[in-house]
What does this fold into?
Amino acid sequence: MKTRKVFTNLPTYYYRPEFEQCIECGAPLKRSHTAWHKTVIGLEETAIVFNQAYRCRDRDVCCHPERVYRSGYADGLVLPYYSYGLDVIVYIGQQRLREKRTIPEIHQLLSEKPIPISERAVEYLFDSYLVLSACSQGARIEKYRPEIEANGGVVLAIDGAKPEKGQPGLYIFRDNLSGCRLHAALLPSGDCDSIAQELNVVKNLGLPVQAVISDDELATVAAVADVFPDLPHGLCHIHFLKAAQKPIYAQDQQLAIELKKPLRGLTRVERLLRTHPECVADLSTNQEQALRRYLDALRGILLTKGQAPFRLAGTTIYDALARLTDSLDRSQDQQHHLVLQQLHSLVATYQAHRPVYERVGRQQTWFLGLADLLDVPMTETYEWPTQTGAEVAQALSDYLDTLDILGSELSDELSDDLSLFRHFRRRVEQWAPGLFWTYEISALPRTNNDLEADIGNIKEQYRRITGRRSLKDYLMRYGPYLTFDDDNDDPDELLAWFQEVDRQSFLDERAKLDALREHLRNMQRFRQDPDDFLAETERLWSDTG
It folds into this structure.
């Protein structure tokens, strides 16, 4: 059973409206009743607060005699149905999201103040912090408005975090220039109509939009064309380069897998050295250190990973194995040893993959030639591209024509590359003209990396707070409310914004968050006990009252 908080010797404060006269007729106000009174638990003080309600004294003349006036300051101390002050809510939110503290840690900090509160109440108030942040989005945008107008408007970046197939995706709409998150939505389906509906929300903010940048997702491209038909829509160059390089990267990943397979024998060698130390009894201290360095180098090769489009794992591993093999050969020439021989037998297997290595390296060279054409330098004075979009498009076309001519002249030597050349051309045709807007509009970035980094920060924030890797439950639990918190928000500024939040707006937004939680609970309950869940559902359906 929940124990009731008992307070003694608390100060009592009475608040009356900030108005002394009726705003309709100008007559003096007269106390009518107590709008509310409660014990308010704040960071600095716990007190009993009365908010007195007043009405117009001259009720026979006033056109709105029933209008109630009460203290806005008192209403700004605490939310309806809450006993903890808004300053406590701001403190909890800041500790959770800025200091990356867990709920038990925040509970401990509050208990030391001392503030009587349970861990469950801390979690509930953190939810309220997120809801209040969402309700304060209008004030946050107004804070950014002067910077946005000084920049000439918004460069709208669109991207989504989609944890798994079948899971809702968190779509974020952000100004790439100021960094302001304009809007966010948790969409069960990222189809054109759903994204267009959210784009209309951004459009109705009344901010001038210069251009849009996104990846090449068909639904996003179609939605932008529908809502902002006259705006330049740039497509992220990194996404394009990943798409163009995809066949090369797939071959390289397979090469890395094949090169690593024989290296799994490293564990067997390491175990041999642990269980039979006499194998290295005849080595000097320096030779033992050298052997450990060879083992560490091989373990480092096993941990090598690639990242499209510029970092290839397979070719990197091949080059490292070649160097390691040569080094082992030189060491063996100085003094032969059984362990070195075993290591050599592991790493020398790379030579069987030379044809694939050469093909991947050659194709990556073709790709880098394509990427270099998009990497147009900027002028030193005004930071404008040194080429126009039309010039870059022509350079790409000429390069693809050159590859086609080269492929036809050397069809035997480059037979493996012909399909890649055709793939390059298809990708360029699919992505044009979205690739070339960035050279015409100086404010339009070539990549959507800033927004992707922003989404990455949300994921990292979650991992640092919870220690969990999967984002799907986090998104389902908090949805778009995660994105409204801004690292640039000052705690005092937040408190002022929260005090201005309309109480009914808060309750409505809180109901939306609770509904989101209800969806999550229903899905979990059905997976845990489908029979019980369906039986209860049928009982609800049969209740027609």
Summary: The mean pLDDT is 88. The longest strand covers residues 29-41. The chain has 20 helices and eight strands.
